[in-house]
């Protein structure tokens, strides 16, 4: 990366720092001037300071800057990131339209069909704090809070240098401090974009423009980007790039050997790191930073790159090299497809007033994402060239030796216990012993570590080694906002677990009662697989409906993506803390967890409720929950629970499927009707009966599940059983006929409806599972 691009990155990332200064000190001075004056105390050169001082049209118009000044790039990148051309607002009335104590609005306010009004609590992003759920009542962002943020920024800026090695550190710092700071406090604008998301996208756009213009030796930035800005908006200067890593679920779950379950979490983390490293490989090949990464999670990613021949060539080479790596190490189990589509700034910008052409603009925005998706789909249908297929056929059909964990025939090694494993599974087996306790990792050239890509190896490291400069390679910190030299990236990882040594049988243990020394509750594992409904549509068209699509901007897409990642990769750890379970995998939109069956069920309900709250009900989840003996192979649990999840989605989404495909319910119906109504009625009544009386619950469940016989016979059997229950109730001194009558009335009403009796039957089943005694 040449020095000019480095200066451009720092100028774009800091161009709005004056807003923080302005709000901290309640000054009525333009933030561009305040920002420049503030940064003079640090080690920033004129190229960076000019971008801070002259990133508005009215400032550039009255300047004497040279034609190739980087301020012109940051100016137009600022406009594109914002989604509007501010040239029309030549007189920037910073003293009239701005309300400095405005909090950040919820990114979901303009998502979907309806406008809502929620606000984030003013604070910094701290991984140790509870999730910052938006509130309906706004809290003012005080000048003292801004002062605290400014102090944190100042502390770090004093010790970093504006070089390539500190770029990731600046990104980490800005995310930690500015994630809940509104980019704009203009009362005529929507304040739902954080200052961090805005400056990050501005830096991505700016560096992409720089490389696009460099390829054709265009250095008169004033002419191309300011005087003729309207023409540049029409140039397809950018690439939207996406990749899809296929085979993730099979790679993680399709393991059946003894003890293989101990690898689950390490396999999950390994795949997550492959995605992260693939994204970084793309960025490093083009000398770009993580600012250009819009989203990564679940084996998917979106990036903004320059539309240059070099970028397209690099994408092709990286795609081929990673697929060769996958073939060599995993056969056809893993495959990556990288798609890209050129786009012009006009296609991701909207007008400030509602006009008919915005309908076209919204369609253009969707079309960019659709085009990328179509290219990826086509590549997944035609994975390999004839040459590669011929190479694969050379292996032929082999009998005998294969990896005992993943069953590959590639890169096998013999262990001392005569248990054959491939190099990757052997490495993952060792890696799984440390992954829970390690927070620092490095991707480098140490071939004794775990291969993660072409000529790249994943290993652990320590904070001490990092601070002492002893680590060679790209450093990753897990759930940590560390800053400093060469801090490549921090990643959010959903890694909550209370199972010692990844022994999932721990979750089948139950509490012992004093009365009879028997275990209460069925001894089973619960397995959850959940997925966000229509997330892809949210990326493409989530902001296309309101105001005819005027809220479709790259900054909103980036903010939306980051909020999804925060929930599923970081905040989910907080939600899980109240339960006995292990989060095996949680990517951009899907979750796999194993735990005590009742904790898994309760966790699923809480996760769904928190997700609805996080998205203001504008996105939903579907979930499948399986119940298994702890000796069941992981691959079987994963496959069967995946089928339950698919049954939930097929039923109309926003649904939960419990234990088998027949038990699929809308989430609200499950919570309101089964959990909060029928199960309470059943529990209240049967807990008043003796052990003999409680045995009738099995008879009732059998009658309900056999109700497809002749209806009159089924009803007669039910009436007989209820009569027997009434007799049992009268014998029980602690019981009450009122409780019985409530139970009877509820059951009879439910029996008249196929839908309701199915819910009642599930309530009976849950009661049995909760009360079952196993010695």
Automatic annotation (TrEMBL):
<keyword id="KW-0269">Exonuclease</keyword>
<dbReference type="InterPro" id="IPR006675">
    <property type="entry name" value="HDIG_dom"/>
</dbReference>
<dbReference type="InterPro" id="IPR048693">
    <property type="entry name" value="Cmr2-like_C"/>
</dbReference>
<dbReference type="InterPro" id="IPR052117">
    <property type="entry name" value="Cas10/Csm1_subtype-III-A"/>
</dbReference>
<dbReference type="Pfam" id="PF22335">
    <property type="entry name" value="Cas10-Cmr2_palm2"/>
</dbReference>
<feature type="domain" description="GGDEF">
    <location>
        <begin position="523"/>
        <end position="661"/>
    </location>
</feature>
<dbReference type="InterPro" id="IPR000160">
    <property type="entry name" value="GGDEF_dom"/>
</dbReference>
<keyword id="KW-0540">Nuclease</keyword>
<keyword id="KW-0051">Antiviral defense</keyword>
<protein>
    <recommendedName>
        <fullName>CRISPR system single-strand-specific deoxyribonuclease Cas10/Csm1 (subtype III-A)</fullName>
    </recommendedName>
</protein>
<dbReference type="Pfam" id="PF01966">
    <property type="entry name" value="HD"/>
</dbReference>
<keyword id="KW-0378">Hydrolase</keyword>
<dbReference type="InterPro" id="IPR041062">
    <property type="entry name" value="Csm1_B"/>
</dbReference>
<keyword id="KW-0808">Transferase</keyword>
<dbReference type="Pfam" id="PF18211">
    <property type="entry name" value="Csm1_B"/>
</dbReference>
<keyword id="KW-0067">ATP-binding</keyword>
<dbReference type="InterPro" id="IPR013408">
    <property type="entry name" value="Cas10/Csm1"/>
</dbReference>
<dbReference type="InterPro" id="IPR054767">
    <property type="entry name" value="Cas10-Cmr2_palm2"/>
</dbReference>
<dbReference type="Pfam" id="PF20824">
    <property type="entry name" value="Cmr2_hel_dom2"/>
</dbReference>
<dbReference type="InterPro" id="IPR006674">
    <property type="entry name" value="HD_domain"/>
</dbReference>
<keyword id="KW-0255">Endonuclease</keyword>
<dbReference type="InterPro" id="IPR043128">
    <property type="entry name" value="Rev_trsase/Diguanyl_cyclase"/>
</dbReference>
<keyword id="KW-0547">Nucleotide-binding</keyword>
<comment type="similarity">
    <text>Belongs to the CRISPR-associated Cas10/Csm1 family.</text>
</comment>
